[in-house]
Each structure stands twice: as structure tokens, then as C-alpha cells.
Input
Amino acid sequence: MQAAPSAPSAPSVTYNVLKRREAMIAYLFIAPTLVGFLLFVVGPMIIGIGISFFKWNLLTPPVFVGLDNYTRLFSGDPRLGTIYSTTVRLAIQVIICNIGFGLFFAVLLDRKMPNFLRNFFRLSYFFPFVVSGAAVAIIWTFLFNKDLGPLNYYLGLLGVNERINWLLSSDWSPIAIIITDVWKNVGFYILVFLGGLQGISRDFYEAAEVDGATGWQQFRSITVPLLTPTILFLLVISVIGALQIFDQPNILTGGGPGDATRTIVMYIYEQGFKFFDMGYASTLALSLFVIILILTVIQFRLSRSWVFYQ
Output
């Protein structure tokens, strides 16, 4: 006769119980975040997709219109191309300035200096980042004022006699948006770059100095390659953030003159809450989501050829 299978040993049972208990505790810890993600991200996204098939003005019951909103998106909105073009143009300039200035100032702050001075500069650069975008825009509205603004006053002292109409000129208003956004956000880029710089071993620089490499050669051949993971991180989040810029143009210029500074998020807001066309606003939001998703995937795919991990 075949012998009966032996019962599992006590240590094995205890191990399985502990493993299940640890898994349950882990699920309990992540449950609030998971529930919040489902309720405030996935849920609204699904609802937004559903609303895009309706015409709804928030005051009367929604009316199913099928693909009418998508037809308008692709061929029936003469302003959309201009607004997306403005958004992309502003985003590219903001991204370049934030990453460029962030890296420049981070390299300066990474040099030898007293700790109190380094901490002072870090706090000075980072402070605008924690201030709300609306407050920053209101401050810069005063600074950019054509007649009373300090910016034109000091430019006049430097010999610029003609006062610049920063907020009402189609040439200067995009520059005003870029200046405001960079002033607010560059401190975050500086701190992230500083973290990346401090993670680079000094042995690389010492070996380069022994070989006679100049400061520029060290920066180009050591600093930049070893910072590529940090650059990728900042590039991804900056693309996502720059394409959703809203506070600065909305408060500084209201999107004007014309559509010179009107971004796609402003247009979504206007369609939904000024013209009460929630169906088309949801369609626009979905188009922006798809564009950001595609750009993010492209960045990660391309990163395989230029990001260097130690």
C-alpha cells in the first residue's frame, strides 16, 4: 500500500502564515494610495472619456452626439491648431530654460563654498517653487506693468528708453510667461541636479585631473553622461508640466493678445467653464492626455540610446 502523505511541518506552516500576514499588511499600507488613484485619477478619466461622446452644458441633461466632438477636434476647430502651436512653442522654451539654468546654477552651487552660503542660495532658489502659481503670476503682473513696473524702470536706467508692453504685445507676452515660469520652477531643477551631482563619485574627477583634463572636458565627459538619468527624469516631468501650463498665462495675459499665449489647458477650461461645452472640453483633455502619453513613451524609448546608468 502507498504510504499516506505526511502533514506539512510546523515551521513551513508558520512561514506561510507570516508571509500572508506581511502581504496583507503591505496591501493595507498601499490601499489609501490605490483607492485615491482609482477615485481621483482613473475614475475621472473614464468619466471624461464618456462625457466626450455627449453634448452637455452642465445645466441640462447630456445629449449623446457620438463622434461629433471628435470630428470637431480634428477638422472643425480653426483655433485649435494655433493654440496647440502656442502651447508647444512655450513648452519647448520653458523646458530648455528650466533644464539649462537648473544645470548651470547647480554646477555653480556644487563648487566649494561655505555651507551657510550654499544653504542660503538653495533656499533662495527653491523658495519661489513652494509659492502658488497664482501668487507668483500676480507678483509678476506688477513687475511687468508697462508704466509702473520696476522691470521697465531698471531697463530705462540701462538705456532702454522705450517702455516694453510686456503683457499686451504678441511679441513680448510669451517671453513674460517664460520668465515667470522659469523664475518659479528653476529652483526645483537646481535641487534635483544638485542631488545628481552629489551622487557622482569624486574619483572620476580626480582621475581626469591626473590625466590633464580641463574643467570643460570633465563637465562634458563625466558630469553630463553621469547626469543623464537625472536629465531624463527632469525632461519627462518638465514635458508633462510645460504642456499643462495654466496659471501664468491665465493671470498674466488671459491668453492674449489674441491667442498668442493661450495654452491648451486654458482652452479646455474656457470650453468647459466659460462656454459650458463639457463634451468638447473632455475631448480636448483626452487629446492632451494622448499627446503627453505618446511623448513620454517616446522619451523612455529614446533614453536607451543616451542615458548612462553607473
